[in-house]
């Protein structure tokens, strides 16, 4: 027997032994391939307007751009940067020119490893490649659903929540509010009145809906003068703030995020918002779990 065959036999024997040991501790190791879904995509001729339309229609955090030479990702966060930097209508901006290189993951990577990679690479989406093309995507939302459907642990949100929050006043312009989110790398802002009481919340999705609306208005200068520099945040904020208490189980929060198709909830104590639990917080919890 050749040295190559001997090495292959040793490797296969070790791998089989490892799997047998794992089956005694857990039924099955879930990998990226198990949770990955068919990517929702646009072609290389699409504009940023088309990307936003698809993101809103499918209620997703980002879109795969099938580029003329390679594929890439255009996320809500990246679109926010485009709105801040480009002083022209989003119908005139190429999605392919603005897409970012995606983060790839091995299809057999265990889920905690995928969660860790999302955090380290600061991305909401991992790409699974096959023959040089994207064959599947794995998102934070997929990990949150997996957590809710497969774990019944006693972890409370106090172990995972992000304490504190960023806020602006109702009269703050869209541009200034979006710039604050983009600069501080956050995905939501509380809106507080002069008495410090929360009156609304805004996420990237609010800005995307606003961008679509103004891009379709005749002779609208919302983009030419700098996106939203004359529009107060109170015009687009969501007034209904979904909240949970500090003793809520993390799996319950995951269920809320899935059912409402949202990315975070406010945490209250004594009728006061003290922080948020987001998909990112749950993904961080998953990354710390044993396989």
UniProtKB/TrEMBL annotation:
<feature type="domain" description="CBS">
    <location>
        <begin position="237"/>
        <end position="291"/>
    </location>
</feature>
<feature type="domain" description="CBS">
    <location>
        <begin position="98"/>
        <end position="153"/>
    </location>
</feature>
<dbReference type="InterPro" id="IPR000644">
    <property type="entry name" value="CBS_dom"/>
</dbReference>
<feature type="domain" description="CBS">
    <location>
        <begin position="161"/>
        <end position="219"/>
    </location>
</feature>
<dbReference type="InterPro" id="IPR051257">
    <property type="entry name" value="Diverse_CBS-Domain"/>
</dbReference>
<dbReference type="InterPro" id="IPR046342">
    <property type="entry name" value="CBS_dom_sf"/>
</dbReference>
<protein>
    <submittedName>
        <fullName>Putative signal transduction protein with CBS domains</fullName>
    </submittedName>
</protein>
<keyword id="KW-0129">CBS domain</keyword>
<dbReference type="Pfam" id="PF00571">
    <property type="entry name" value="CBS"/>
</dbReference>
């Amino acid at each position: 027997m050749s040295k190559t065959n001997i090495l292959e036999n040793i490797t296969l024997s070790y791998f089989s032994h490892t799997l047998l040991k794992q089956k005694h501790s857990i039924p099955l190791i879930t990998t990226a391939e198990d949770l990955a879904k068919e990517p929702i995509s646009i072609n290389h001729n699409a504009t940023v307007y088309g990307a936003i339309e698809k993101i809103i229609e499918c209620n997703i955090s980002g879109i795969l751009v099938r580029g003329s030479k390679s594929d890439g990702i255009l996320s809500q966060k990246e679109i926010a940067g485009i709105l801040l930097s480009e002083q022209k209508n989003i119908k005139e901006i190429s999605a392919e020119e603005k897409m970012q290189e995606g983060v790839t993951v091995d299809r057999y990577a265990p889920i905690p490893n995928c969660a860790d990679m999302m955090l380290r690479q600061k991305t909401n989406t991992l790409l699974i490649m096959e023959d040089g093309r994207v064959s599947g995507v794995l998102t934070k939302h997929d990990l949150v659903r997996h957590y809710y459907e497969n774990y019944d642990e006693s972890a409370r949100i106090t172990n995972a929540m992000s304490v504190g929050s960023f806020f602006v006043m109702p009269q703050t312009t869209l541009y200034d509010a979006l710039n604050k989110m983009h600069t501080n790398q956050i995905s939501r802002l509380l809106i507080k009145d002069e008495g410090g009481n929360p009156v609304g919340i805004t996420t990237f999705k609010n800005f995307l809906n606003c961008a679509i609306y103004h891009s379709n208005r005749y002779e609208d200068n919302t983009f030419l003068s700098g996106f939203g520099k004359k529009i107060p945040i109170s015009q687009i904020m969501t007034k209904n703030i979904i909240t949970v208490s500090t003793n809520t189980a993390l799996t319950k929060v995951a269920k809320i995020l899935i059912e409402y198709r949202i990315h975070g909830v406010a945490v209250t104590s004594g009728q006061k918002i003290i922080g948020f639990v987001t998909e990112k917080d749950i993904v961080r919890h998953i990354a710390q779990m044993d396989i």
